[in-house]
Amino acid sequence: MDSPDRDTRTTGTPVGRRVILGLIGLGGLGIVAGPAAQDGLSKLLAPAQVRDPTGLLALLPLGNNFRFYSVVGSVREKSATDYRLSVGGEVATPAEYTMAQLAQLPQTAFTQTFHCVTGWTVPDVAWSGVRLSTLLDRADPKRTATAVRFRSFDGTYTESLPMDKARGDDVIVALRMLDAPVTHDHGGPVRMYVGGQYGYKSTKWLSGIELTTQEIPGYWERRGYDLDGTIDD
Ligand SMILES: Nc1nc2c(c(=O)[nH]1)N[C@H]1C(S)=C(S)[C@@H](COP(=O)(O)O)O[C@H]1N2
Ligand SMILES: [Mo]
């Protein structure tokens, strides 16, 4: 259980150079020993494969400060060929998409700062994928559909958005992130990215989109997070 609630807030905490060098030297953080080149280290750490129990790794200048989050212990990997995304609920035309079908739809690309509600941010993250509104239109929503619910193939995580937020230009079913296909740790092969909303709104390992008659609180919302994840800045 890696609860953002318990995530140490490190922003602004002074950490001496000795501490950081000490951390790099530690074997206990799950960093696989490999090519010692700076490039190699950065590649190992960048996809946030390290769970960062101390929260200090986020201070290391590695170019990608994402932290790995999952509410379940491990998630079975899905290849691009195995992947399916269902769209259903209050719609006239339910559908199931393969990765190839999603890739053939118009893609939207943009760059935005990623904000986790616990305080860490990643500036200028490049995203691309299919606008959620494109998939909603194709499903032909019924008049009763006022919200959208997201499911994850981790079997546990859920999220939701009211229809007006769901139709935002920067709300995408993301196929690419950080100029590459979305990695497994980041919720690949397909995850949500909800622009303008805290990270918890962006469901990783996306498996289902369901139109609903009311907004259904998601995993973290049942544990106290705001239903409205709008970033207030
Ligand atoms: N399935 C799933 N999606 C999730 C989460 C999760 O634990 N499980 N965590 C959320 C939170 S709180 C954040 S900040 C981001 C983190 O994305 P990352 O793991 O790529 O850094 O994913 C969001 N989506
Ligand atoms: Mo988060």
Question: Overview of this structure, please?
Answer:
This protein has 2 domains: about 1-75, no CATH class; about 85-225, Alpha-Beta Complex (Sulfite Oxidase, Chain A, domain 2). It is globular, with a radius of gyration of 18 Å. The protein is of the alpha+beta class and about 230 residues long. The protein is about 15% helix and about 25% strand. The two termini are about 30 Å apart. Strand 3 (about 110-115) and strand 4 form a beta hairpin. Bound molecules: ligand MTE and molybdenum atom (MO). The site of ligand MTE has 20 residues, from loops.
Task: Note the main attributes of this structure.
233 residues, alpha+beta, Sulfite Oxidase, Chain A, domain 2, 5-stranded mixed beta sheet, 5-stranded antiparallel beta sheet, 10 strands, 26% strand, disordered N terminus, binds the ligand Nc1nc2c(c(=O)[nH]1)N[C@H]1C(S)=C(S)[C@@H](COP(=O)(O)O)O[C@H]1N2, binds molybdenum atom, OxRdtase_Mopterin-bd_sf, Molybdopterin-dependent oxidoreductase, TAT_signal, OxRdtase_Mopterin-bd_dom
For the record, give the distance between the C-alpha atoms at the N and C termini, rounded to a whole number: 29 Å
CATH topology of the largest domain: Sulfite Oxidase, Chain A, domain 2
Proportion of helical residues: 10-25%
Quickly give the CATH architecture of the largest domain.
Answer: Alpha-Beta Complex
Give the H and E element order. HHEEHEEHEEHEEEE
Query: Mean pLDDT across all residues, rounded?
Result: 81
Number of discrete domains: 2
Q: Tally of extended strands?
A: 10
Q: Helical region count?
A: 5
Anisotropy-based shape: globular
CATH superfamily of the largest domain, by name, is Oxidoreductase, molybdopterin-binding domain
Bound molecules: the ligand Nc1nc2c(c(=O)[nH]1)N[C@H]1C(S)=C(S)[C@@H](COP(=O)(O)O)O[C@H]1N2, molybdenum atom
Sketch the major β-sheet: 5 strands, mixed
- Give the spatial strand order of the biggest sheet: 2-1-10-5-6
> What would you call the structural class?
alpha+beta
Uncertain residue ranges: 1-50
